[in-house]
């Protein structure tokens, strides 16, 4: 039966203000519906629209994500796996979930790497007559120390293929400078990151094979500034350092004028024995299908240069908030919900791997898993790793998210932490929360990733979007 105008209005497309003060804008005459819109409108249940409005009202009027993030970032700060700050964050996460009133809160033990940056990180371009130009650098995660000051010539490359074609004499005893920039023609910054990050991950290892003494890697960003971007690298026998984009441009320019210049690098990083740490798990038991689990999470660890606000403090507080919102709005989930703060995503993913191992060991049934690890910016929608039928089912809910501009539901990447679940327990969908990412890689893995870069409304809207998807998954399953 074709829905009446009153039913379409009740579906929430024209609801305004909070749910307690909602008003329906009356129209004298129904506008003509296009064929592309009418079927989607007809598919939106009234009760679901009202439920989502209730969730968003709770988030925008009484949300707790922002205050939780303020404490995590300002009182604990950077939380590299194995550090005392990481343990403080575990304790914070457990206490925050308990305060939220979840049915069960517990820890999952996991052994994690313990790499320490050290106090001294210096980089200098040395030209004619030993005249030096200081440039901002930072050690890549897992790098070895330089063992004091390390000075050598520099050879610039833009790809591994270019490195392989160089004669041994052009590489041996030198720094290999990987200077492939982001492809700024790409609309999605994540795609540009994916097209450049292999040089950070594997650059030092590949350079070591050719007899280089160190690797310098252009920071993973399209921003032109003096912030070096750290990140994990594969184990190598030579040091690997990130150089800021401004520093990389300067080094490249000077090399063209003087191929014989040298670079001096000093870093004191060290790898210590593995440390015991934990995933933090909060659970609300399902009322009808408690054996079916929906996981939502972010990673609790962060790099040590700043406070780890967008990466991934926002994902952690949003995951906790998503469950709190559902409880505060009075909903009783039909399926069991878990908020998981994963440990060690940045330099090992051992938390995500252990969570999946335990899920398989306990023969758990996971309907879906959601991850927020792209920053706390304005919500846009969700990306699904799933079969076509599952994607089509979830995409039908996009109309419900349209009033909140979070209706971009398409195929996409789920997330690093939830990735191991795919083979371990075969959930129907791995889902990545998508937000506006244009600014993300300006601060990603840098000293600029601080609390002041997070907007309260953007953060709370993201938590509400995640809670809304969880509400629908819990009600309808997959």
TrEMBL record:
Keywords: Carboxypeptidase, Endoplasmic reticulum, Glycoprotein, Golgi apparatus, Hydrolase, Lysosome, Metal-binding, Metalloprotease, Protease, Secreted, Signal, Zinc, Zymogen. It holds the Pfam family Peptidase_M28. It is found in: Endoplasmic reticulum; Golgi apparatus; Lysosome; Secreted. Residues 1-22 form the signal peptide. Residues 279-461 form the Peptidase M28 domain. It comes from the Bacteria. Residues 220-240 are annotated as: Disordered. Gene3D superfamilies: 3.50.30.30, Zn peptidases. SUPFAM superfamilies: Zn-dependent exopeptidases. Homodimer. The monomeric form is inactive while the homodimer is active. PANTHER family: CARBOXYPEPTIDASE Q, PROTEASE FAMILY M28 PLASMA GLUTAMATE CARBOXYPEPTIDASE-RELATED. This is Carboxypeptidase Q. It comes from Hymenobacter mellowenesis.
